[in-house]
Amino acid sequence: MSEFASKDEYYLSKIRKHREEIATLQKAQRWIPVGESLPTESQKVLSADKGGRVYQSTYRCGAFAVIFHCDEHSNVTHWRPLPLPPQEHKT
Q1: pLDDT digits (tens, 9 = 90+) for 14-55
Q2: Which of 5-9, 23-27, 48-52, 87-91 has the weakest average pLDDT?
Q3: Residues 39, 79 contacting (CB under 8 angstroms)
Q4: Can you tell me the distance from the alpha carbon of 79 to that of 38, in angstroms, rounded to the nearest whole number?
Q5: CB-CB contact of 48 with 78 (8 Å)
Q6: What's the CA angle centered on 44, arms 71 and 63, to 5 degrees?
Q7: pTM
Q8: 22-39 burial code (b ≥16 CB/10 A, e <16)
Q9: pLDDT for the residue 5
Q10: pLDDT value for 37
Q11: Total H helices, total E strands in the chain
């Protein structure tokens, strides 16, 4: 805290840092409109259609293929990367 002129300045710097971290996390969690960008080839994603249904899909050959089905997922409006798998906490 010695680099700050006051406790207020210290706490304001902490708040700014946390706001930046929140913005980064929110960006990583947002649904991406297909008109904005598309996943990379063979990327596994969550995809949502016009009816609000969400599927785990693989993006292949310009289409969203539903995993565990032979169907293509049509009318997809948004997608997002799959979250990272959980990590074990070491105690």
Answers
A1: 999 999 999 988 888 889 999 999 999 999 999 999 988 899
A2: 87-91
A3: yes
A4: 8
A5: yes
A6: 45
A7: 0.64
A8: eeeeeeeeeeeebeeeeb
A9: 85
A10: 94
A11: 1, 6
